[in-house]
Batch of 3 targets.
Target 1
Amino acid sequence: MTPIKRKLLYIFRDTLLRLRITWNHGTSLTVSVGYHVNKTDSRGRSSWDGSRCRKNTSHGADKVPASVINRELEILEERISKAFFYFENLDKIPTKEELKEKIKPEGAAKGKTISELANQYIQEQSILSQWTFGMIRTVKRSLESMIAALGPNITLDEIDDTKYATLLKSYFSRPLVTLKEDDTPKVTHGLQNSTINGYLNNIRRFARWAKERGYCSECRITNQPASLKTIKKPVIFLELEELYKIQSLDLQYFENLTKARDMFFFCCFTGLRFSDMQALKWGDVSEDSIEIVTKKTSDRLVIELNQFSKGIIDSLSVIDHNNSDNVFQKMSLKHFNNLLTELGKMAELNEEIEIANFSGTEKIVQKFKKYECITSHTARKTFVCNALSLGIPPNIVMKWTGHKNYKSMNPYINITSKAKKENMNLFDNLPPMKSSKKFR
């Protein structure tokens, strides 16, 4: 048995981690590890030491823990060692193709259907990447849309350009049923491109996972265009005058509407998401602030109370409670959104809002009354927009909301044109200057 000298070197293609195996005086094979790895974190500190992710770091858009990636690297290196040991026993120098075939994961079999792989993918990745219930539901819905369009028995390698076109066509023609105000059904056809892009992103991640684990060879679906054309939706928020309209409603005979208004206003003046507001305990509330760990991003936030949010807390604190009790009554998101629509309608928030999008190449323009567009997330947008309009610096607002960078704040900053104009008018209060060429 002759030992085969080899060298393993981790390299990057952007953030995608790959392993280059070199043997036999220059023969090399590069394989993908299957994960995106950040060399540095948001503060510029090293997250990669050359062969492993540093402890307590997370990587890629899915924030995969270092421990998960490092375990995969150990498994890959072990398969490579076993493969070379196999060829050493044969006293044979392997070709690139022979080594590639030998280091495939045990049990990796091409030809598995997308239905079989989808179940395995969700079960595995939901644990490794610690997906929330909402993420699991979104991914499952995306993969089910592909199975419904192409059939459960097709394999990923069979999805060529024709099959991909069939998938897109199913999205563009899917019937959608919505209810009008009088509860009569209205049927339209075609998913919006923004929705389709979300589906396709999840499908491509699934295909890359399958390819990296040897369940398919070509997976041409990963090479399809990144996204379909979309139009940015307007940021819908409530001006302070509109909040006062809702506040002035007489709701003494409408208990559910009163509770929904309190919840909505609390979010409007703290920036909390609906899920975090519902999870808020009395033990999280102090005299002048609340402290939470957000459900979506696991950020620990301390949010100071103002006269509006504190007023709501004070009105609820008269009821006997323990620190482990919820501050607000539990309510389903759907029911909450329905109550918000009713509140907006009662407050006569009838401003017409136009929302445009594409379904395929067809531009679809829809017009709504503003009260029809109010949802739980409107409260968070309302907090950010009004805070910026009041002149609170974006970096302070981000401390309250948990936004990670200014890019995520841009949609809100761009719509505060009214405050921008009012601030420019402050120059008009300055004493006039003498005429000069430089001011003409």
Note: Confidence is low (pLDDT under 50) at residues 435-440.
Target 2
Amino acid sequence: MPNWNPIQYEKFLKDRTRPSRDLAQRLHGIEVNKALDLGCGPGNSTKVVSEMFPHAVVQGADISEEMLARARRNCPGIAFFRLDASGDLHEAKQTYDLVFSNACLQWIPNHRQLLPKLMTLLNPGGILAVQIPIQRVHPVHILLHSLVETEKWCKKLTPRPYNNLLPEEYYDLLSEISADFELWETVYYHRMPDHESILEWYKGAGMRPYLEQLGEEDAAEFTRDLLYALKEQYPIRKNGEILFRFPRFFFIAKKGEA
């Protein structure tokens, strides 16, 4: 797993946190005594869960030690621990009424095996609540893949795979492992002051696996090439801003009662 830079990630923290707030609002009214924020990052989504369920014991987990250190600083009253969600989950050491995951699972392969495994973290009647970017149709991810596949970069870079299933595939999978579930999509339209801001957003997330494969000079040139592509893809609006379209996929799945 590449290293994460919490400072870079937090440059757009308000916009990055909006989907976790929207997901948490869908959980209004459920009873939660113990909750886990899986892929907690710098703790922004963990704070959302804690605010939604103020009487619950909330924990955060992430694979990145850099993110965990930042989360502990940002949320001093919450316990955080390292967990590799692609592994056997033994680090969790307990089960929960809610497993909440915002913009994390797209980094982990084999969702047909992953989701049943995550359900084992739940108590009977517990809830798995997930948000993941829809990378296959996201313009920036399409630009990134197109750039990586060019003659200039294909010998230096390995494309990042799309781990997400199609909505219909999630539907079939959840119907097998869940007592009840719902799926939905939301498209966020973020206001960006310039194209460089979109670039900075992706330096904190989707560009990392590519930049870490390159030396300093090549990384700078790859960044310039992507910026040029962004300027072609995203026109400047009448007020001088850039309209940054970001589609995201959500689901909530309930575990069967014992």
Note: The mean pLDDT is 93.
Target 3
Amino acid sequence: MSGTRWLSQTEQAHWRAYLRGTRLLERALVDDLAPHKIQLTEYELLSMLSESPGQRTRMSKLADDIVQSRSRVTHTAARLEKRGWVERVRASDDGRGVEICLTEAGREALDEIAGLHVESVRTNLLDTLTPEQYEALGDAMAAIRDRLAPEHHEIGIDD
């Protein structure tokens, strides 16, 4: 253990603040969606799907985009399919893969819930930070994303 680079007291305090803060933020976002009978993972899937070309994408790509296992995305998709919000179809380009498509009912549900979710993000995150802190948070998380999943680098404000 002689090669271990232990965290300084300040580093440890920041690390623990990050862990607790991210968990509390996720809990607040989940709690704000709960009265609308939708889970945060379901909302994220619908939101990412709505931004995909033709509001459809391969299940495997969606799993990578939302950083979930393929089996978890399959379970989430099954729940949303029962509501009529998505449907799974054979891939349009080669017929071997499976794509997930946002239905009209899913688009309507997303339109209804999106404003509530954005307000929750504003209340629980943006309103808590200064613009400089929020920018630094975005920069820091982009650096982590790029190191841990460089093949999934998204085009955004940092490009």
Note: The CA atoms of residues 92 and 143 lie 34 Å apart.
